[in-house]
Amino acid sequence: PPLSLHTHRWLRYHRSMGVYHVFVHVEDTPELIPLLQSEEFADFVTVTTGNDKSEDIYNPTSNDNYYTLMQRQERQVRRSVSESRSMGIDWLFHVDDDELLYFDTPFSRIVDGLAPGVTCIVLVNIEAVPKSLSSECVFEDIEVFTQHKMLAYRNGKSAGRVPDSDWHGPHRFTGSYHVVPVSRACVLHFESCLYEQWRNKFIKHREIDEQKKKDIPFPFYRDSISLFQKDHDGGKDEERWKQFFKDRKIGNFSDLTESQKTRLALSTSMPQMINATA
Hints:
single chain; alpha/beta; five-stranded mixed sheet; four-stranded mixed sheet; 10 helices; 18% strand; globular
């Protein structure tokens, strides 16, 4: 589906579950701005735009931005913390557009049960298990998630208590933290669950040098970049690229046991959430 439709569903889902406000920084997808500033979302989303000129200190002229991502995230989170304080917002989550917050226990109840002094709530992330190359709505179609054989990060995402905490890396806010059991709440990570999404994500990093590529902690990421560096067209209908995706992404989870799967029936509520009117 088009990126704007994916973003539309992401925004509606989170507003339906009670999220008060969203802060979005747009860099290379200006086609999203009309949606984000539309009548439906104008009071729900704060949009900032533009490249913030972050540079790779090891190679300032590089066109690849993999190693400046954290710098850009830090600027966005600190900006959002400041705005949240002005708006009187109590808690701020840092998540990406391929992640959904999921609560079996209401967030307010989790907050009420915190020990004194806790300023950071950590939600464990579980990875979505894709079934095919494409999907009309990946959020609705995927019902199986796992904490086993994960291809991306596994150290969770968090919310910071706005008056008392600030950025402390992509996965934490400052201060004392509490990890929520995954049975109560978690982050659903739809990492590269569609072929097109995976291709567009990693083909951008063809210019990364070998040493920096080796420093990437995830073999799936490194091998995906290597594929696009060595095979520039994928063959007829990108068949070689698609085969890699089938083998390394879909096939990676093919031998999961039932006990290694977490089944979440998002499909029962997702249509109402994403199709509800404002």
